[in-house]
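Interim report to the steering committee. The following record documents the input for uroporphyrinogen-III C-methyltransferase (261 residues).
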Amino acid sequence: MMQTPQPSQSFAPGSVRFVGAGPGNPDLLTIAALRALQTAEVVLHDRLISPDILALAGPAARLIETGKTGFGPAMKQQEINALIVEHALSGARVVRLKSGDATVFGRLDEEIDACDAAHIDWSIVPGITAASAAVAAIGQSLTRRGRNSAVRLITGHDVEGYADHDWAVLARPGEVAAIYMGLRAARFLQGRLIMHGADRSTPVTLVANASRPDQQVLPTTLDRLTDDLAQAELSGPVLTLFGLAPRAAEAALAELTKERA
């Protein structure tokens, strides 16, 4: 049973808040997310949540890592659902803390369904998604008049699901996509797009740990994507921006093209 999330709304015992923790920098938490953390009694958090954000939880809060990350060891979704329900039914104020925004590739619906089945009240506190933080890091916008009026949010975690995308549309000039968890699927991405006629010189930028002190930015092209990745030492969560270059690099390329004309 959904409750409309408001920053001042009381956090009732025996209820769950699905909270977006943002991209990792605690300065990018919403006020509502901070208040939920400070009043939570149990925090079930993703492995990639930064220690600085976990430190904002109330001193009495029990922190439980749910252990889902990339292609490595993972707690099964059914186990996470069971933990959420178990702690809420015990009367605790439960925060399910997810990286970025809980509504973007966060398996939110499965966890909400578990709450509904157990008649547990829940609400959603949105957060800044990784695509927004990554594009801010390179001084660009996800959409721009005259270039693209739409942007695709894609997950590269499931390579089989990858095959279902309309690659011919994405391969058209001017298209932009933000690809989550796509590091290990980079070769697949490159091959599909080139196969469907994408310009090999299309800019691709990878941003690791967007917004955090250890943020890394790797500008490349579709043609050089896998080669440059093999030489780079990117660690942590990586978001791939297809069709976008850092603003400074884009300006330098435009100037070079003008000189050659």
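The two ends are 62 Å apart (CA to CA). The committee is asked to note this result when reviewing the revised timeline.
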